[in-house]
Write a structure and sequence with these properties.
- The chain is an alpha/beta fold.
- It folds into 2 domains: 89 residues, Alpha-Beta Complex (Quinone Oxidoreductase, Chain A, domain 1); 144 residues, Quinone Oxidoreductase, Chain A, domain 1, CATH 3.90.180.10.
- 31% of the residues lie in helices and 21% in strands.
- It has 9 helices and 11 strands.
- The protein has a 6-stranded parallel β-sheet with strand order 6-5-4-7-8-9, with helices on both faces. A 3-stranded antiparallel β-sheet has the order 1-2-3. It has a two-stranded parallel ribbon with strand order 10-11.
- α2 packs across α3.
- The chain is globular, with a radius of gyration of 19 Å.
Amino acid sequence: MAPGCEVVGRVALAGEGVDLAPGIRVAGWIEAGGAYADRVVVPAHRAYPVADDLPPAAIVSVFFQGTTAYYAVHRYGLLKPGESLLVHGAAGGVGGLAVQLGRIAGAHVIATASSDDKRRLALESGADVALDSRNPENLPGRLREVTAGRGCDVIVDGVGGPLFKPSLRGLAVGGRYVIAGSASQEPATFDARHLLPRNQMICGFILAHITEEDPGEPSRALTHLCELVRDGALRPRFETVPLEEAPDVHRRLEDRSLVGKVVLEP
């Protein structure tokens, strides 16, 4: 695999029978990677027309990460107004957008992050409460405390590992636990019998399978997210850096100092 799977640009040349005229602006999904370039080849069914009036970096910032957050909160989390939403990794790209989508949906949003600065960013994104993810053993008690003893209706977990079991203990009756990633790269196991008396659901997903079963995605979700950005309701956190600085960005990813989305500009 080569780095980079998402791009925003204009069609330079389209193959025969492709309904994408040269010059049209698209978001492109390159499943095999290789998007660290000034020109790329994108399969026609993975090129989605996007608006001309938004900065390309803003569109990139809500493409994979935004649609992932949207599916986690709405398609699988089925979040309703007045419910409580817990978001792990709330200062990251997916987590930060999930916090904002929860706020837009009228939920009580609880965030976790691993540092004071990241918890501050989560609060700036709209979280009502920001908890320290470095103390997972204290998490169930804190979740009951901030939800008046009820627990969280929806959990969006892009971290996993040591946060999984304690988070599950803080899930409300009828709650939905959505696994949207595994940043910890550590296993998470549980006794499935515990789901029975509390009518709970756990699910995970990847974008590729959603698009296989629903041809309208991710274009439909991306268009909706871009409308939220245009209206100012959704504020993706991103920075743009020159393409030649990609190695430095990867170092920041590895030491977990990266916040939000970094967009490479050729």
